[in-house]
Automatic annotation (TrEMBL):
Name assigned to this protein: (2Fe-2S)-binding protein
The entry's keywords: 2Fe-2S, Iron, Iron-sulfur, Metal-binding, Oxidoreductase
UniProt superkingdom: Bacteria
Coiled-coil spans in chain: none
One Pfam family here: Fer2
Originating species: Streptomyces auratus AGR0001
GO molecular function: 2 iron, 2 sulfur cluster binding; metal ion binding; oxidoreductase activity, acting on the aldehyde or oxo group of donors
Domain spans labelled 2Fe-2S ferredoxin-type: 20-96
Gene3D superfamilies with a match to the protein in the record: 3.10.20.30, [2Fe-2S]-binding domain
Length: 189
């Protein structure tokens, strides 16, 4: 079917693009959407699915406030198009835990006061979940001292390096590192 058949004009020619039907699995539920093919995953989550936990910070992939997990990997949702994730498993902060049954990292952030204004917190927590999975899989970072070691030592330096894509404008970094370190070491939560 051509653009003339759909009645839509090509982008940049004063019209709108035809909508794309996609199916995502978000927080364990299948979601069917019709979106402009230029819609970022962030905007699909916030505007189409009303999942406002994922934050729009810089909208340029520089702050990490929009971090979600896609197929268990952390991704800045502002930098990827929704149509690219047909059939993928997307987990947002809303999918990690519930009131009364928080995810261990959510509890750790509360107990360690790992947030101040809270705007970056959903992205920080999603990124930390993904980061801990990367460590468990043995993926080294720039700060990993022994890349051939079967177990990566999750030092404060290692945590800071791995979380460097997530900015906290309130500077709660020491408490964020403490929360992640506590979970990594099987600490109290």
């Amino acid at each position: 079917m051509s653009q003339a058949d759909t009645g839509a004009e090509a982008p940049g020619q004063g019209g709108t693009a035809p909508l794309s039907a996609i199916e995502l699995r978000v927080n364990g539920q299948v979601q069917r959407l019709a979106v402009d093919p230029r819609t970022s995953l962030l905007d699909a989550l916030r505007e189409h699915l009303r999942l406002s936990g994922t934050k729009k910070g810089c909208d340029h992939g520089q702050c990490g406030a929009c971090t979600v997990l896609i197929n268990d990997r952390r991704v800045n949702s502002c930098l990827t198009l929704a149509v690219m994730h047909e059939g993928d498993e997307v987990v947002t902060i809303e999918g990690l835990g519930e009131p009364g049954d928080l995810h261990p990292l959510q509890r750790a952030f509360v107990e360690c006061d790992g947030f101040q204004c809270g705007y970056c917190t959903p992205g920080q927590i999603c990124s930390a979940v993904g980061m801990l999975a990367e460590v468990e899989a043995g993926w080294p970072s720039h700060a990993t001292a022994e890349v051939a070691s079967p177990r990566i030592a999750l030092t404060d330096e290692e945590i800071r390096e791995r979380m460097s894509g997530n900015i906290c404008r309130c500077a709660a970094y020491p408490n964020i590192v403490a929360a992640i370190r506590g979970i990594a070491q099987g600490g109290p939560v």
